[in-house]
Specification:
heterotetramer; A: 331 residues; alpha/beta; Rossmann fold; 2 domains; 6-stranded mixed beta sheet; 8 helices; 14 strands; B: 205 residues; mainly alpha; Serine Threonine Protein Phosphatase 5, Tetratricopeptide repeat; 3% strand; globular; binds adenosine-5'-diphosphate; binds magnesium ion; DhaK_dom (chains A, C); Dihydroxyacetone_Kinase (chains A, C); glycerone kinase activity (chains A, C); phosphoenolpyruvate--glycerone phosphotransferase (chains A, C)
Chain lengths: 331, 205, 331, 205
């Protein structure tokens, strides 16, 4: 395992220190926690928007803390949901009296831990609502399972819910807008190289030089299928087809697109992917209002990418374009 | 036997030892069908529990369970933290303020814990989660006159049975059919939980 | 070789298409070239700032095209300086009548090709000045060699020269300010994993699991020294010491810092590095006015990082903080 | 011999063949002490040159050199593009409008090219660049009664000599002492340039 790190056990703490040291005007840590909040938190009278999850997804989630996006982010151990007490600390730190929305990615651990935190906060008289993001179409959507994972599409939820909160919407309204994003965003990922959880010390799986995984999540896990390495065109088509099958996009619709790198993918490759994706979208007569290309929801040093498509309406379009001033996402 | 807080502490220390011993194995299992942190998570939790045991002594099993519950909830994280933590929390309620527990009362507490896991995790038997150890095991042994050897073997068998299951809950569910052929990591740690309990009972009972 | 790509020979062209497709409001390609310019180029009466080099350094250089930074960027083949005709096209496309400054990284190829382009432009009556960035202290500074390489410190030149040009400074003034940056910025890099030039198909060098390269450039080349893998603290110290040896930083000085990832380094690790670097800088009594952490000047999918330190004065401080609206760098 | 534009084209086509044949080898050399693109760069340039030859015929060597210079400058990129390109450009001036060149006149043109390389690259002999082939080779052979076998052997030896040099110019200089022990890639392509020239002379002379 080759990483720029010191002590495995301190990696999350040192990362958070390094983040706050780099952006002292924008961010602060809540003492004794793994919570990062806006420097001006809590913002009086504004709905607080909080997200988080295991570490290893940087810039998610601390990178999206700032005006117009998240008020606070909780970092768990690498790929491990943060505990309820930490989430509770974040809720308390950002509550400006208008309640707090929790944006949870749909993993059993995250859902349970955030829910328990919400219960703690409600017990102290803070209004808390939650939304659970489940954009990953690689996973079967079934009422018999815990359902689909939350992956890169979550960034759209942060952006749009955050802008709605900044715009003075009420907790119920922000929740409803966030739900609207969740219903209309789908993603799918693939990987070329696995990653190594620092404390585990070895990669989560092995791939041959001519293999790739399709339907990969963001926790270094294998995908839903292993196939031969294919050109970007074919990969983009596989990802798009699966998303399209679910969303049934229609010619003339307005969408936003994200090509997200998983942590070790050069921007050159992400732009090549976008070139290919843009072609496919054009063929389908889709109007792309906004394209986001970069590493936003990563999986340590995994190589690969995900495609996310968000169907727009006036509200989502407006809040997606609204100002955001965070360290990893600026509009 | 009659379980004092100290007996229970002895059991949970053995559980901690076993977690440490099998840490890599649990993580390996989780790398196969999850995200490769289960051994790491559990080890973090029981290490913190051992610290607690070094600092504090407990008058009753209930008090002990509650303190351990807080440590598990606050330190393990992931899915297993709230599950083991909620189980311990409900075990504390079930044990109440009694100074000792009979085998039957301890098994009743574990049954309360089992219900907590089912409620938190919303998983049923056959979905390839720790529920597949907790539920059938505590169905089979109702606490009157427990054969601890059989108890221990059953826990092991139930764990082994998860290997052929197709996961429906937890991270392994994302793999679909590819989850078949690997033991569920949470079931493996749960087997250690029950086996160290049985060992303590045999040793001290 | 595992990359998200289609045809090796088309990789630069497809990347540029994907970049412009993602940011149609901000960027445009000059037809038939590998030049990307601001959508509103040429800006009348403003000094044009142009940079570029081989591809594979993304977001450099196209990602820095926009208001307050570059007016145009030329992309060569991967790790190969662009040819004079391409540079000339960029100069023509951004000249708004006030002349054009070329920001060249100090590589023999880049210097020769940009110089030839400058000669072509002067022949057509466009005033062209150039600056050559040579911030890499890993390489000996000697009048007997072609001198030091230009690496990540170049971003500071783009930012500050771009802001000065936006502020209406003359070509001579912008050049002088850029020279001031160059004299006061030093960098040093290291790598954990090599990278593969697409057309070459195999990595530039091999490293064992317990080895790293110190003094690596940005072209996938080996570093100046191979050592055992060390903790982030020691790596940061090595990089800092070498920079300090050259710059002789004094307690109380104001500086800006960049922790730059080489392409496949997770942000988590860059923040851990920054945590460690911030400690060292504090010990030396240095005042860090601005910290930039991320992947800005990369080397395909190389893993590793570089540290850059810029000594500030009032001019540099002002222009570093000034507005910039590019796809990869916003202020 | 007397060199027509067609003879020169024949030479440069052979050069192109050799570049294609040694493409990976040149790139490997550049991976060792540079950035691993020299074979790729040269191959791109000579491929474009061959296209030019397919489309156009040239009346004079000077006209041909000039067209090739433009292709090299516009297609090779990196350090080698401007160097080979500038050399060809100066060879064109030296050849002027003459319909044919004697051996002496061709060697004079190459000397002019050599000077262009020295001026553009500002490198001297011993700094581990293509200058280490061009300069001593064209010093030794002044064009009167050239022994083309010796010419070819000398180019090869000069290339080989760069192996032990400590680079002072070009990318290899960044490696310092680590550059010793590897042949300079630009010297290797230059050796091919001169060896195909010699081969053409032997074949047609
Ligand atoms: N819904 C659920 N109900 C019961 N147990 C579950 C559920 N989801 C996961 N588990 C258990 O948790 C284990 C994984 O724990 P761990 O790896 O620590 O957390 P995470 O999955 O968040 O990484 C699984 O092996 C499984 O036994
Ligand atoms: N200053 C120089 N003068 C003469 N030749 C040089 C100089 N710098 C580099 N070269 C030659 O160019 C070759 C490298 O060419 P190439 O790899 O195509 O370009 P780059 O170094 O830009 O990647 C070197 O092997 C060397 O022979
Ligand atoms: Mg986990
Ligand atoms: Mg896990
Ligand atoms: Mg090159
Ligand atoms: Mg080269």
């Amino acid at each position: 395992m080759k990483k720029l790190m010191n002590d495995v056990d301190q990696i999350v703490d040192e990362m958070l220190n390094g983040m706050v040291a780099a952006h002292p005007q924008a961010l602060k840590r809540v003492d004794g926690t793994t919570v990062v909040v806006r420097k001006d938190a809590p913002v009086n009278g504004k709905v607080g928007v909080v997200s988080g999850g295991g570490s290893g997804h940087e810039p998610a989630h601390g990178g999206f803390v700032g005006k117009g996006m998240l008020d606070g982010a909780i970092a768990g151990e690498v790929f491990t949901s943060p505990t309820p007490d930490q989430v509770f600390e974040a809720i308390k730190a950002v509550d400006g009296g208008a309640g707090v929305l929790l944006v949870i990615k749909n993993y059993t651990g995250d859902v349970m831990n955030f829910e328990m935190a919400g219960e703690m906060a409600e017990a102290e008289g803070i209004s808390v609502k939650q939304v659970v993001v489940n954009d990953d179409v690689a996973v079967e959507d079934s009422s018999f399972t815990s359902g689909r994972r939350g992956i890169a599409g979550t960034i759209f939820v942060h952006k749009i819910a955050g802008a709605a909160a900044e715009d003075g919407k009420s907790l119920d309204e922000v929740q409803q807008i966030a739900e609207g994003v969740i219903k209309n965003v789908k993603s799918m990922g693939m990987s070329l190289h696995p990653c190594t959880v620092p404390a585990a010390g070895k990669p989560g799986f092995e791939l041959d030089d001519n293999e790739m995984e399709i339907g990969t999540g963001i926790h270094g896990e294998p995908g839903t299928e292993r196939t031969a390495l294919k050109p970007a065109k074919e990969i983009a088509q596989i990802l798009f087809d699966k998303i399209h099958e679910d969303m049934k996009l229609e010619s003339g619709e307005e969408i936003a697109v994200m090509i997200n790198g998983l942590g070790a993918t050069p921007l050159m490759e992400l732009y090549v992917m976008n070139h290919t994706v843009a072609d496919i979208l054009k063929q389908h007569g889709l109007h792309v209002t906004e394209t986001i290309v970069g590493e936003y929801m990563t999986s340590l040093e995994m190589a690969g990418a995900s495609l996310s498509i968000l169907r727009l309406d006036e509200t989502r379009k407006k809040y997606l374009a609204a100002e955001a001033d965070t360290t990893a996402f600026k509009r | 036997m009659t379980w004092t807080a100290e007996d229970i502490q002895h059991w949970l220390k053995q559980f901690a030892d076993q977690i440490h011993e099998h840490k890599d194995e649990l993580t390996d299992l989780d790398q196969k069908i999850g995200d490769g942190d289960h051994g790491i998570n559990m080890a973090r939790g029981v290490k913190e529990m051992n610290k607690l045991f070094d600092e504090k002594t407990f008058a009753t099993p209930g008090e002990l369970f509650k303190a351990v519950a807080m440590v598990y909830i606050g330190k393990i994280g992931g899915a297993s933290g709230p599950l083991y933590g909620s189980a311990m929390m409900k075990m504390a309620s079930s044990a109440g303020t009694q100074e000792t527990l009979s085998d039957k009362e301890l098994i009743d507490a574990l049954k309360a814990g089992k219900t907590a896991i089912e409620q938190r995790g919303k998983a049923s038997v056959g979905e390839k989660t720790m529920v597949d150890v907790w539920v059938p095991l505590l169905q089979k042994f109702d606490g009157s006159d427990v054969d601890w050897n059989a108890f221990s073997d059953e826990a092991d068998e139930l764990k082994a049975k998860t290997k052929e299951m197709h996961a429906k809950k937890g991270r392994a569910a994302y793999l679909g059919a590819r989850s078949v052929g690997h033991i569920d990591p949470g079931s493996a740690s749960s087997a250690l939980f029950f086996q160290t309990l049985a060992a303590t009972a045999r040793e001290r009972g």
